[in-house]
Amino acid sequence: NGSSNVNLAVTSNPTVVTPVNAGTFYSNLITDAFGCTSTVSDTVEILALPIPSATLTLLSNDSICAGSFATMQIAVSGSTGPWSIRYQRPLGPDTTVSFAVSPYVFQVNKAGIYNLVQAKDDGNGCIGTISGTATIVVNPQPTAIVTGGGTSCAGTSVPVTVTLTGTSPWSLIYQDNSPNNVVVSNQVANPLVLNYSSVSNFGFNVLSVTDAHQCSNGSPSGVPVTIHPLPTATVIGGDSLCDGTTAYVTINFTGVQPFDFTYDSLPGKSRNVTGWLSNTFVIPISGIGTWLYK
Question: What distance in Å separates the CA atoms of residue 248 and residue 236, rounded to the nearest whole number?
């Protein structure tokens, strides 16, 4: 830059000199081995080209759910571009992206560490500086596995078990014999066990489940639940009649055919009837005597 002289002793021709700073360089005097000198007025100007500075930052949460994406950006300063940026991802080879407008925004869905490897200005070929790293955690989707259910009679409980996967606590929505969907929040115990004993016929279904990472699964899972009413038998009829006529005792049933039942005629023996395919059973009575049917 004309501010100071540098003396070089050289033995080869040509001699390559590598300056460490940009500026204007002058060659003004040369002396050979015999001491002969000559004035030279060659000028070389070295320009300092801008170098890029690339930074990787995470724009979204670093914890994502399986099937979703995290958002990152690469911001470049220091040069005008366009640029080619190479970054390392958790699986597979390095990825190179080229762009002319900063920042470059992109999405990823693999767990692991992401960092920059190289920043290059494609316009001048300069390799620049890099910084920034991001670690992504991918959480599995929670599930709700429903077992149990089945058929029973009133007064006997039918258990339904909901086994949860994911991270506690959970929130879930399920459908049963309630008039509206049931919302459960802050469910810590696993599994969730529900018992049904009232007469009903419904499908128990988990409609959605969300865990502590706010990962949700809307795939329904369910079992049928049927609770039958208890059967009844009502005895009617009977009378005081004269010999030679017939009295009738009728047993009326509620429930679902076929029926198995036992009745007594006192004094007398108990009688068992199985597979009766009617809601009415009629007993004719004749002869002299008094009987109690039950």
Answer: 9
* Burial degree of 205 (CB within 10 A; 0-12, 13-18, 19+): middle
| Buried/exposed code over 69-106 (b: 16+ C-beta within 10 A; e: otherwise) | ebebebebeebebebebbbbeeeeeeeeeebeebbbeb
Report residue 185 as tokens. 């929040």
**Beta-bridge partners for 76:** 54
Asked if 180 and 104 touch (Cβ cutoff 8 Å), the reply is: no
Q: Tell me the average pLDDT across 55-63.
A: 94
Query: Strand, coil or helix: what is 130?
Result: strand
β-bridge mates for residue 83, sequence order: 99, 121
Q: What is the pLDDT of residues 91-141, one digit of tens each?
A: 889 999 999 999 999 999 999 999 999 999 999 999 999 999 999 999 999
Entry pTM: 0.69
C-alpha–C-alpha distance, residues 182 and 74, integer Å = 45
Kindly write down the DSSP assignment for every residue of 74-111, as one continuous string.
EEEESS---EEEEEE-SSSS-EEEEESSSPEEEEE---
What whole-number distance in Å separates Cα of residue 185 and Cα of residue 207? 14
Write out 140-193 in H/E/C secondary structure.
CCCEEEEEECEEEECCCCEEEEEEEECCCCEEEEEECCCCCCEEEEEECCCCEE
User: Which residue, 25, 120, 96, 109, is CA-closest to 62?
Assistant: 109
Its sign, for the CA torsion 183, 184, 190, 195, is negative
At 211, phi and psi to the nearest 5?
-100, -170
Distance, in Å, from the CA atom of 109 to the CA atom of 18, rounded to the nearest integer, reads 46
Contact 66, 138 (CB under 8 A): yes
CA atoms of 256 and 214, how far apart (whole Å): 47
